[in-house]
Each structure stands twice: as C-alpha cells, then as structure tokens.
Amino acid sequence: MARVKIETKICQGCGNCVAVCTFGIERRLYESGFTSCQDGNIDQAICVINGVACVVKPELCSKCKYRDCEKVCPSGALKIEV
C-alpha cells in the first residue's frame, strides 16, 4: 500500500501535485488558479492549504499506481513510500 509523505518545511505550495493527481480536481480548475480545497466538497487526494500541500484523502493515494505527484514536485517535499 502506497503512502504519501509531505515535508511541509520544504513544500513550496506550487500545486503541481494537485494538477497531476489521478484523483485530483479537473485541470481547468487548477489552470484558473484554484489550488485549495478548504471547503471539503471536492473529491481529491491532495490539496494546497495555507500554502502547503496536504494529503486529505490518504485512502485514494494508497490506490494510486502512477506516482506523478512525486515526479513533479520541484522541491522534493513529496515522497511516496511503498
């Protein structure tokens, strides 16, 4: 079972992980500048909250086999442990 870990001290809050998440928001929302899910109404695994990426639905991450979020993290803050 995969598990996403985010080092909050080095996360840049860029939202790249949100944009590529298999279970994430639609790309058009991200491209329009939306990278937050504080209202809790969006079905996605990763969000940017207060400038830091957060795993909000780890059960979705555990099902993912693509690891795109880890690949696009410019700071290396996001790691997937298997």
Structure characterization notes:
The chain is an alpha+beta fold and 82 residues long. It has a single domain, classed as Alpha-Beta Plaits (2-Layer Sandwich), CATH 3.30.70.20. Helices cover 22% and strands 20% of the residues. It has a two-stranded antiparallel sheet with strand order 1-4. It has a two-stranded antiparallel sheet with strand order 2-3.
Strand content: 15-25%
Order of helices and strands: EHHEEHHE
Question: In the CATH scheme, what's the topology name?
Answer: Alpha-Beta Plaits
- The gyration radius over C-alpha positions equals 11 Å
CATH class: Alpha Beta
Q: Tell me the distance between the termini.
A: 6 Å
CATH architecture: 2-Layer Sandwich
Cross-sheet strand order for the largest sheet = 1-4
Separate helix tally: 4
Identify low-pLDDT runs: none
Give the overall pLDDT as a whole number.
82
Q: In one word, what is the shape?
A: globular
The major pleated sheet works out as:
2 strands, antiparallel
* Percentage of residues in helical conformation: 10-25%
Number of structurally distinct domains: 1
Condensed summary:
The chain has 82 residues and is α+β, with helices and mostly antiparallel strands.
